[in-house]
Amino acid sequence: MTLPPARIVVEDLSKSYRIAAPARPPGAGRRLGFSLGFSRGFSLALPFAPRRRRVIEALRDVSFTIAPHTITGLIGPNGAGKSTLIKILSGILRPSAGHVRIGGLIPWADRIRHVGRIGVVFGQRSQLWWDLPVDGGFALLRDIYRVPPDAYRVRRARLVETLRLEGILDQPVRQLSLGQRMRAELAAALLHAPPLLILDEPTIGLDAPSKLAVRAFIHDLNRQEGTTVLLTTHDMHDIEALARRVIVIGHGRVLADSPFETLRATTLSGRRLVASFDGTVPPIALPDGVTRLSDGEGVLELDFDPARVPAADLVRLLDAAGGRLADISIVRPSIEDVISRFYERHGAAE
Ligand SMILES: Nc1ncnc2c1ncn2[C@@H]1O[C@H](COP(=O)(O)OP(=O)(O)OP(=O)(O)O)[C@@H](O)[C@H]1O
């Protein structure tokens, strides 16, 4: 089973939802003439009164291209439009406007061929059958995707081994722990060896060792099989561990599309330095580009821009200041801090 590599091309994609607006407050219909007032405080809405609708623009003019064999992170605050985009790319939803081609197919129009070429894992939903043993679900997926018996045997054995599924194959899915279920879901999505894996919050709710195991598996899958991975997550450690490129969505638009390090450099490039002294902090004249955050109890905390003041120069300055320097640590802002600042700057958070 060799399927074509998955290049994703998205052009000017928009999706709006029409939803029923909240019910009109009592009396409002009467003013518009769509209900009859019989007496004070009582009104009857007529059936021909038009239903009020509200339009939510979940995606607006979204464009990007993803090369085969890469891992791309798709991030954005709650309600940004990520799930809507994932559903369109999976062929579940039709956009209101724009174009998508994945490996040359239009996901919603060529749906049957398309789903045979992608694997999808939704962290919050199961694609396996709740009451069936894990292996029974795998066999059903083999039939649905028409995986040839020999290819299935090899593939299943490999996934069972790498995802450590041996001990849970005969257990019904509903009995599995979240970590076990997620490993089984990954195997289920990959039995037909798709060239594209779409992951929607694959580590949600997992404990630390399970998160590490899922990340390692995705990393190896991409390296060893060249599987293209599109990863949506709110866990920035998933992004840090896996994705060289991030697409940030906010209010339905692409706000950034770059390597994470570029996002960091343009959003929160500073470093934090904490120096501890035995005794008091000596007087130090700080150069431009360095801000004193706190200074007391023998601890000096600085914020500095490494492009203007290299860390090594700062350390030399502190060492030569005349105090008894005991310890120094320099940290970069966490990925959560960088992303939160980015959302804040773009007014993207809900
Ligand atoms: N079926 C639907 N009908 C109406 N509105 C919807 C529907 N699905 C999503 N929306 C709206 O579209 C917008 C984008 O939602 P979407 O679920 O795509 O965001 P998201 O980025 O995945 O959010 P989260 O991170 O919270 O899962 C939101 O305003 C949401 O309320």
Automatic annotation (TrEMBL):
Q: Name one GO molecular function term.
A: ATP binding
**According to the lineage, what is the superkingdom?**
Bacteria
Pfam families documented for this protein: ABC_tran
Q: Return the InterPro entries for the record.
A: AAA+_ATPase, ABC_transporter-like_ATP-bd, ABC_transporter-like_CS, ABC_transporter_ATP-binding, P-loop_NTPase
Q: Which keywords, in A-to-Z order, does the entry hold? A: ATP-binding, Nucleotide-binding, Transport
The ABC transporter domain covers 44-276
Keyword Isomerase in annotation: no
Q: Which Gene3D superfamilies match?
A: P-loop containing nucleotide triphosphate hydrolases
User: In its UniProt entry, what is this protein called?
Assistant: ATP-binding cassette domain-containing protein
